[in-house]
Every structure is written in C-alpha cells, then in structure tokens.
Design the sequence.
C-alpha cells in the first residue's frame, strides 16, 4: 500500500470503528468499517440526476500554505469519489450549479481508548502483576504501545446560486492502521454511499480495499 504524501500526512494523521485485515487465499483486503450519517435537503425538487458538475469551495483556513497543499490532496481523493457517484469537477473558470466543501481530520492516540494506561510506568520496562498458579506476583515486562487513530471526513454540497446546503454527509472510522490514500478514499466512498438519496439515520458502511 502506498504511503500518503507528507503534506496530507502531517494534517491528517491519526474517526469510531476498526480497520480489520481479511485474508482470502493469496490475496487480502482491508475492510474499512465506517459510521456514516447523511442528510439530504433538496427541498421540493427531486435530487438531481447524474451527471452533474460542481466546483470545490474552501474555507479561509484551507487556502494558504501547507493547509492548501493538504487540501489539494484531499480534494483529489474527493474528486475521484464524486466521479464514481456521477458528479464531475467543472472545467476551470466555468460556472457550475453546485459547490462541494470537503474536510478531514484525524487524531492519533498513544493507545486504544479501552486499553489501560496504568499497566506500567511508561512505554518501556515496568512492573506488572500476573497470576502465578492461582496467586499473584510481580514481574518485569516490556510494554509496547501501538498508536490508535480516530478519523473523520465530511462533505457539504451547496446550491451555487443560493449558497443553501442541500446535502451533508460524514464518515467516521478508527483503528490502528496508518494513513494512506486508499484508506481516505474508502472513507469518502462510504460517506457518498447512496448519494444523492441516502437512507434516514446513522448506518455502518463497509468498504473493502485491496491490500
């Protein structure tokens, strides 16, 4: 699996479900399980049928320096996911009926939320208690903490002429695997599942990614 470029890795290291590895014969896939929530607000009109064109919209904080470089990479992944849903980026300097705003965030934790932080005196050697023939005793052990990542992606679709939000969706995923373009693409595909007519309520969306 290819490494994510440095620009997006710095800002998107680090959603509340796990990433598991499935093995099948000689091939293997990652199963990226996502908690997805989507809200459609197309109003009295029906959701627009594909194909449609759009342009990306950025917040002021996404337009300068390193943040802009990271946003470039994120939008490239979102562009591919939207294309799979039948929406295509409008040519430069041309009008489009819709705008799309995409954002992503991640948090790297030293351990999974359910793991005990007090099983030793730091990340190296520490004292621990273990059962010995039905009793309890002390022992030296090596504890190696494995980072845990919480990630989220969000997309907003607005009607360009009015600025009204007509579609909102997000996907959350967490687990121990490091960031990669394939992982973020899977999250974006999950967020856009059933677009533009999503089912009501929160749901789990699993996306298999070839390893």
Sequence:
């Amino acid at each position: 699996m290819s490494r994510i470029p440095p620009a997006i890795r710095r800002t998107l290291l680090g959603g509340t479900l796990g990433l598991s590895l499935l093995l099948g014969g000689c091939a293997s896939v990652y199963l990226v399980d996502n908690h997805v929530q989507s809200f459609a607000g197309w109003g009295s009109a029906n959701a627009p049928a594909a194909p449609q064109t759009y342009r990306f919209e950025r917040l002021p904080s996404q337009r300068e320096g390193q943040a802009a470089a990271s946003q470039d990479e994120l939008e490239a992944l979102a562009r591919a996911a939207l294309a799979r849903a039948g929406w295509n980026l409008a040519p430069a300097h041309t009008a489009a009926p819709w705008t799309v705003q995409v954002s992503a965030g991640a948090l790297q934790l030293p351990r999974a939320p359910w793991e005990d932080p007090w099983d030793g005196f730091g990340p190296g050697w520490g004292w621990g208690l273990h059962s010995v023939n039905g009793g309890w005793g002390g022992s030296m052990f090596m504890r190696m903490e494995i980072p845990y990542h919480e990630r989220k992606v969000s997309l907003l679709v607005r009607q360009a002429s009015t600025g009204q939000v007509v579609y909102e969706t997000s996907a959350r995923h967490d687990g121990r695997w490091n960031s990669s373009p394939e992982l973020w693409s899977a999250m974006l595909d999950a967020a856009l599942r059933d677009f533009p007519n999503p089912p009501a309520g929160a749901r789990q969306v699993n996306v298999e990614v070839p390893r």
